[in-house]
Amino acid sequence: MIALVRSEFRKFFTTRTWWGMAIGVAVVSAGFALLLYFLLPGMPLAPGLGTPSLDDPGIIRTIYTGGLSINCMLTMLVGVLTIGGEYRHKTITSTFLATPKRERVVLSKIIALLGFGAFYGIVAVVGAVAVAGTLLAVKGHSPIPDASVVQTLAMMLLVLGLWALFGLGLGVLISNQLAAMVVAVGFAWIAEPLLGLALAYTSWGKGIAPYLPSRASSAMVQQLQQSVDPTPVLSWWAGALVLVAYAAVLSAVGTLLTLRRDVS
């Protein structure tokens, strides 16, 4: 198993994809952190959250995780590429011939994707903290005001790893790599956020919206809500359980389909 996981890392880090994605994650994280640093203190928060202040740990957490949704989409694409590239380049056959037990192949990809997600989580943290943290320190504010900020930064690693597993499941469901990538972008960036917003404004949907993947991700990193979003928020650990459940189901479906699917 160790050799299979090492092989997955070698496959990924010997291509240009890894550093292209790393640059994208760093730029997104730094850009959104910078934008929110200037804009968030003046934005209205949800009722009961008080006035935004750069001394508030909740504001700092939200600034550091401002680019989370786009970074989730990027790591989801990494998951799609991990399995979709095998089908596209016809290497899946040789992979299964080298390792006839397909469940071991899928498990090695799952472990590797969690590692990839953690790596990009570190890149995201460095990008956001390097920009916003520096500005906070220069203005006399603490970049890390309490332990909740450290917890949030650590949770980002897990969030991105789990979204990479979403991509793995989608890449197995849709073996055409291009189609899977289009669906991934459409789901993560358009369909799922719009669905969450629509549910938030219905009496029956308010109880469902917090359990959508993006809302669970926001709960894990303890982002503050804006006044335009009236839905309740899960605790960070409940958000983690919801996101793990999504990843587990998609990974299980992906494993079952991989075991049954014919390859040529």
The level of helicity is over 70%
Q: Structural class, from helix and strand content? A: mainly alpha
**Element-by-element helix/strand order:** HHHHHHHHHH
Compute the average pLDDT.
86
- Indicate the proportion of strand residues: under 5%
Instruction: Tell me the overall shape.
Output: globular
- Biggest beta sheet attributes: none
Question: Which regions are unreliable across 5 or more consecutive residues at pLDDT < 50?
Answer: none
DSSP, total strands = 0
- How far apart the termini lie comes to 24 Å
Structure in words:
The chain is mainly α and 264 residues long. It has 10 helices and no strands. The chain is globular and about 60 Å long. 42% of the residues are buried.
Can you summarize this structure?
The protein is built from 10 helices and no strands.
Task: Give the key terms.
mainly alpha; 264 residues; 10 helices
Which helices and strands, and how do they pair?
Layout: H1 2-13, H2 17-39, H3 57-64, H4 68-88, H5 92-98, H6 102-138, H7 147-173, H8 177-200, H9 213-220, H10 236-260
Helix pairs in contact: 1-6, 2-3, 2-4, 2-6, 3-7, 4-6, 4-7, 4-8, 6-7, 6-10, 7-8, 7-10, 9-10
